[in-house]
Amino acid sequence: MVEVSYDFGLVGLGVMGRNFILNVADKGFNAFGHDLDETKVKSLIEEGGNVNNVNASSNVTDFVNSLSTPRKIMLLVPAGKIVDSVVESILPHLDSGDILIDGGNSFFTDTDRREEYLKSKEIHFFGTGVSGGAKGARLGPSIMPGGSKEAYKMVQPIFEAVAAKFKGEPCVAYLGPKSAGNYVKMVHNGIEYGLMQLTSEIYDILKKLGGYSNSEIQELFASWNKGRLQSFLVNITADILTKKDEITRADLVDLILDKGKQKGTGKWTSQNAMDLGIPIPSIDIAVTMREISALKKERDTAAEIYSRPNLEQIAKSELAKRAEQSLFFGFIVTYAQGFHQLSEASKEYSYELNLSLIAKIWRAGCIIRASLLEDISSAYEKDSSLSHLLFNDVMAKQIKLTISDVRQTVALGIKNGVPLPGLTNSLTYFDSLTSKRLPMNIIQAQRDYFGSHTYERTDRDGIFHTHWEE
After folding, report:
1. 439 located within any domain
2. Is 374 a catalytic residue?
3. Active-site residue among 192, 201, 267, 360?
4. 3-class DSSP state for residue 362?
């Protein structure tokens, strides 16, 4: 029997789990880990250095019995059936009032199902998004909990201690009931897809039309990271461009296959937005581009069949200005789409999300952290009923200053055959949203023509149908 009664338990001692539990221990809470892999168990004990502070076992009974009650157990395992399997393996050993926390990227409806099931067993369950990667888990992630507010209060001191800090404020907050935490993390990842796609496009156009070298693009991104584009993704892009291959000493980025992969959270964001009827084209196209990139064989074949436009070279200083304006515009529009989805989902699923608070806990620790989130948080703090971020005065002012350069950048891409789908979709979304009249009247007429689907009129109320062929 273990003599120490541990404050916190964690199942899944992979890279994320090991780093998170060591973070907990560093903050003054003794923690006990569990994994079926004995190698991972031994590795954690060795790295922890003191079993009274950090311990672990491959035996589930020893694990559960080592924890103080009510037990606080976090799961950091892959989403899907494995979560249900782990829950069932632990459940017989738990007592009424114990707490299970799913810290993986579970789909939000799975979290709702698990919460209802465990509630019937008198076990608290809540889904919690954790962003920041392995380094964030170790040094301070952004944490997005949702579910039982009563249960969260018991875990709150631990989460606030381990979370990233922004000007002293912990980047964690209770977000809402049911699956609110997992849902917010899902949309976070959708925004992440969009921002990554935009960043890659700006790199591409600088390289192809500006003749920039990797080192010159690195300098540009590094300078942007000191201004309004300050963000984790811009910063790491600059870092990536400095890395040399250990064998060839060539720039490593040039040796990486242009074939993207994904784990599904971006796709889930797009699918759910369609279910809600919310347009998020900057995120949708980012998912699609990873799928297109995976068609490497087909792309190689197509490139042999079709010729490409001759690339015109743009003066570096002029292209750099347009590129910075375009990336900033794209960032604003992508965040705006994500927050619009959060706003509508909050109503649909009764999450009661505080959008200002969400922006605040994203300011540090997470992958989409950026200085822009300060303005976003302020916008929703000023007007919690703001229906769309682009309607905020500060955002509107910034958009107006960028739009001319964005149009020129998109036109350059189209003229030269440089694909800019993220930026183009962001601009099309903006142009559509700001159009008083769209050609949807033709589509409605077509639908009524072939399917008698009816239409509304601009000059009178009611629902109408026309016998078009007569």
Report:
1. no
2. no
3. 192
4. coil
